[in-house]
């Protein structure tokens, strides 16, 4: 068998060198995936990664206890199984014994405990998802067993674990720098800025801030076999300008685009026979959040009028590359069947009717200046703002778009006094569960800078429904019925404009026969590169690899 | 003595800029902490971070601490990329300098002869073309041109790489300017590689300045050509070549020199777009990102370093100006 | 030393300059300007000839033509002939025309503006001297200009020339930049430069107007002295009739592109024939006081000049006949006038 493959390889090599010009040829057996990122990679620390590029890198360098699946379930991963106590507050995880970190050290319970403590200690989004875990009661039962205790019952816990990347605790402690965390020093923050401590399918071979990163396949990876023809090396370049990135795609310098092209440019790829364009709905949910604590947005009729005045389909199809309309905070894909939700179709006549019902007179309404804070540098955000404010003016509201830096928006939204009347933002629903998305509409979710985006609205009935649902077994139909009820009550009072969840458009060279093809079950999980596959015999592949 | 006074002047300017920027970034609205800590930071974490960064202290105390740090070459930690700003700038500055200097060189090498030709062959085809060029070139859509050049030279013809500074391994680090380093270490492969990458961004960045230099040289040459000494030199039979290149150009170049002093900071500004489109790992892009992220130390640090270069370049152009024009030299 | 024989065809017997019935048009953006209508002028070896008239009459154009710095086009010779040193300039190859410049010394109007502010006097003089020795070849020039012996010889020559114009410390002046010299000093430097070729003819274009009165007088004396010592012929352009009387043997009066009258300076100014000359003479402020009378009207628009005598619209004695162009007639020996008041039919 082995002898055969060597002969075959030699024959293939002879053939290729016979037909190929005398230039340096890529090794067909070692395909390199080349792609661009439009945002800077400023950290490789799983606890601090925020943008899609950082997340994709972290996702490929680290593994988790559990792995999300496209159908929104989770499957055992480093943890081969787990037990849940009767009060649903204690989770005991049993680990596989064959998983290795990139330095060869086996993944053990100590590392899991270290990783959990680390995210709970460091500031960041991941810690937020896992905030119910009691940091002081993390037990290492034996090298293969770890136990977490929750402060309160949390139906999202297992799903939230998807975001807990497992780090090599021993390596990080050996490389800790001075810091504020006592015996843990800086918790390895400095080290993880540019280096990896993971066990994932790829390791970081080279990283230059501002330029790019090279990942290489980890040969000791056991959790899932690499696809035949999967990239053995991944080169991600920072290309801040998306049109440049598309040019590099066209030139064959990139194999796949990890960001959606703007709608008019999709056609360029669709019309080119060398490219395939995949599309799938994501769970990136877009909302226009309103500051309901200030007049006139404290009036439900004004909010309903505004919801009717929003031309959702233009926003979705002309500004974004298509999408699915949202009916409430939770997209249908996560909530399942739920009927009777109040919807606000684009209808200026209805908008005018609601304005007439408002407790404020038309003259009063004109007096309120309604600013739409548009994130500086984001063209679609601004376009959505113009679309909305234009229609609001037509129903007699004094609305206008104001460009504000993202950091300033985030800061303003943490307090109801400073929160803007309108902010457009999206939530990538990293925990695939209705509860986090709905919780922003209860007092518990107020004030977090992001992703709530400054929602200060509540309805005691919704809070009661949410509390009740959290006590039910996760995934039970009764639990989802309660969420459905909450969604209806929220939608009925229109505390935000529920816009849409968008569609991911992915141009790729056809020789990359398998790439991301649907939502991965959590944000960006469709980009595990060991599942990608090249047709290494395709002449375009051979030609492009050396570019 | 005069030199010493100039250096002192430069230091005062830098000190003033540092104070201005330091206060400005802190007075303007916006909180960097949220961005630095990432989404989902708790209030305690934010407070802890503020103390850690010294942001809880009064402004003047913060500024003095910053100045003390500067003396040790410590620019403070960037919030976007938690490393010392000085280190980041040191890494990224050579890329911007290489780009700007190459573009400036291109603009001068092409712009000056073009301006001379236009002036000496007034209303001829070169003059007409250069006047059109001056009009359109100054308002040239850099961004669009960059993408078009990428498509044509890069994607369609495969003549040049679309982005980046170098494909292969960079040359041994000496100055950080790849061309210079490659030359010094005799690594001609890396030199060719770096040069190929430089072509398109250099052209794009040079377009505007080139147009400005051409029109400046043209108009000051025309001014000079109308001066009596030119007619006199012609009347006594001096050759055209000597008149144009020895007498007139020397005088016309002084004003262009001042322009070049102005162009340098403008080009660093213009480098932002070019660095973005060509994924050029330079300091202009970093500075622009810093402003968006409200990264105090990075904004102040980048501004200071760019300011230092602007001050030095102005110093050099002024000295050259004086060397070229005896009238100013004699007045001192 | 510069060799005056390096251009063998320069004749020393023939008139230095002879313009005969010259007519020139200028093609401008607005149309054709008929600036020079009929210029007839002769300069014999060793004599200084004056050219007087209001500004805008074509004096400077004539000077520029003789200096070889009149751009052609836009200027076009329509009729007549131009001879210098016995050679017809029409059809002379440009190289030979340029070579003639070496024999022409130019003393310009504004001494402070014609010196290049960025170079020392030494550099400017040496450039000229070396160029005159280089046979009009740039390569030869650059080679010589960078040969130390040539340059130091040229420098000595420059110092010698400065001594000729009575500059006491030539070495000091050579090291200076033009701004460091006084106006009179600059004018003397220019005179020295004018001598650096092998001049046969000196063209002085109102050389004293930019100077103050005391310096004016000294410069005129120096000029006269130089012309006599070097045996030059001269064309002295001025609107100051007093100066013309002082240094010019003969004088031409020019109006709107026509030399309307000429003759020995003294008689010409004492008893002017042409109404225009009379007008000019009457415009000189007299010591008895009283405002000078000026000639009413102004120089015509060259785009559409009056037919016939161009002075007719301003002439107090104009009559029917003046619609036609008067011929130039010899009224007395060496005295010519172009006016219908004189000549066969009027007489």
From TrEMBL, chain A:
> What coarse category fits the chief subcellular location reported for this protein?
periplasm
Task: Give the record's keywords alphabetically.
Answer: Signal
The record's listing under InterPro entries reads: Peptide/Ni-bd (IPR030678), SBP_5 (IPR039424), SBP_5_dom (IPR000914)
Sequence ranges assigned to domain Solute-binding protein family in this UniProt record: 73-445
Q: Which residues form a coiled coil?
A: none
Biological process terms from the Gene Ontology for this record are:
peptide transport
In Gene Ontology terms, what is one molecular function of this protein? peptide transmembrane transporter activity
Q: SUPFAM superfamilies given for it?
A: Periplasmic binding protein-like II
Is-annotated flag, keyword Signal? Answer: yes
Which Pfam families did the record assign?
SBP_bac_5 (PF00496)
> What compartments host this protein?
Periplasm
Answer yes or no on keyword Signal.
Answer: yes
Q: At the top level of its lineage, which domain of life is listed?
A: Bacteria
Per the UniProt entry, the signal peptide is 1-22
Q: Which family does it belong to?
A: Belongs to the bacterial solute-binding protein 5 family.
What is the name of the protein in this document?
Answer: Peptide ABC transporter substrate-binding protein
Record organism: Reyranella soli
UniProtKB/TrEMBL annotation, chain B:
Matching InterPro entries, A to Z? BPD_transp_1_N, MetI-like, MetI-like_sf
Residues that span the membrane, as ranges? 7-28, 99-120, 140-160, 256-278, 298-324
What organism, scientifically named, is this protein from?
Reyranella soli
Q: Which domain of life is it from?
A: Bacteria
One of the protein's GO biological processes: transmembrane transport
* One Pfam family in the UniProt entry: BPD_transp_1
Family membership: Belongs to the binding-protein-dependent transport system permease family.
> What are the leading ranks of the lineage?
Bacteria, Pseudomonadati, Pseudomonadota, Alphaproteobacteria, Hyphomicrobiales
Q: Supply the name of the protein.
A: Peptide ABC transporter permease
Q: What are the alphabetically sorted keywords of the record?
A: Cell membrane, Membrane, Transmembrane, Transmembrane helix, Transport
The membrane topology of this protein is:
Multi-pass membrane protein
TrEMBL record, chain C:
Kindly state which keywords UniProt assigns to this record, in alphabetical order. ATP-binding, Cell membrane, Membrane, Nucleotide-binding, Transport
Q: Which GO terms describe its biological process?
A: peptide transport
Localized where? Cell inner membrane
Q: Which residues form the ABC transporter domain?
A: 17-281
Molecular function terms, GO-annotated: ATP binding; ATP hydrolysis activity
Q: Which PANTHER family match?
A: DIPEPTIDE TRANSPORT ATP-BINDING PROTEIN DPPD, OLIGOPEPTIDE TRANSPORT ATP-BINDING PROTEIN APPD
Into which family does the record put it? Belongs to the ABC transporter superfamily.
> What is this protein called in UniProt?
ABC transporter ATP-binding protein
The beginning of the lineage is: Bacteria, Pseudomonadati, Pseudomonadota, Alphaproteobacteria, Hyphomicrobiales
